[in-house]
Every structure is written in C-alpha cells, then in structure tokens.
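JOB MANIFEST
job_type = single_chain_structure
chain_count = 1
residues = 174
[input]
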Amino acid sequence: MSTYLMKNTWPIHINHYSSNYLANVMITMFTNPSVRLFDDFYNISQGFSRNFAQDSNLHEFIRFMLERFFYEEFEQKCGAVDGLGSQEAIGDIKPFWMNLVLMVYHIDHLSFQRWVEDNSQLKGDIDDMINAYMYEFLNDKWQELLQELTNDIFPILFANRGFLLEFNRRVART
C-alpha cells in the first residue's frame, strides 16, 4: 500500500516562484490593522465554507490575494497608458508579471501584445482590451496559474503558526 501512495504522491513538484515573497506580503497585509483585507475577503467569499470542500479557507484566502495582486498590476498598467491611443498604448505596455509567471510554470499562452497582433479586429479602449485578454482569453490559464501558485504558497503560510493562529481566530469570529 505504501508503494501505491508513493507512486501517486511523489515527487511533489513545487516551483516556488516568488512563493516566499508573496507569502510574506500576504502575512504583512493580513497582520496590518489599517488594512481591512480580511473583511474584503469575507465579503467577497460570502462567508466561509461550513461544509466539506476541496480547498480550505486558507486556500481561498491565498487565491483571493493572488487575484488582487494580478488585478492591481493590470490597473497600474492601464493607468500608465491612460490617455494614449490604443495602438500607441499597446506598444508602451510592458509584459505583465503574470506572463512571466505563466512561463515559469510552463503554462502555454500568448503575451498581450501577441494576442492583440493575432486579433487585429480588436478595437476600443485599452482597458477593454486588457480586460478581454485577462478575463476572456486567459481565463482558463489564469485559473490554472492561481491553483499552482496557491498550492506553492499554502505550505509556507500553513507552517507559519502565528499567522495560522490569527487566521483561524478571524475565521472563527465570522
């Protein structure tokens, strides 16, 4: 029986691309009393799972934080090219951090610039193009990446007993 378990569970492959950094940012933001991050998480998640679920509340929190990190980068990129024409803005947008992380995790995808080139019929505001790229074109790949990163960050946060204690206290209070 142990051979069967070993065949199915080993080797565990963890990329740990920026995992420690991201976990540290999550801990810092979570423990900062001026950041109402947990309330945002709780409100968006509509409370916590009381039934058996595949992912724990900690998994969901990590995924929530990662989504915020990626979303903030997209907002920042949109703000940097605000006021430029679409074609001019596309040339000025540097590759997204998410594209780099997708490459590290060997998730096949097109960069934003390449996607725009391949879809020359795209017209409109640069914000709309970025949203279409992110939420329509990359959606499945983005979800896969979120799961991979969540799986890499989870053991780091789970091993931090101080963070885990406070996280569980806040969950219990809700």
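[summary]
Residues 1-12 have pLDDT under 50 and may be disordered.
The chain has one domain: 17-173.
exit_status = 0
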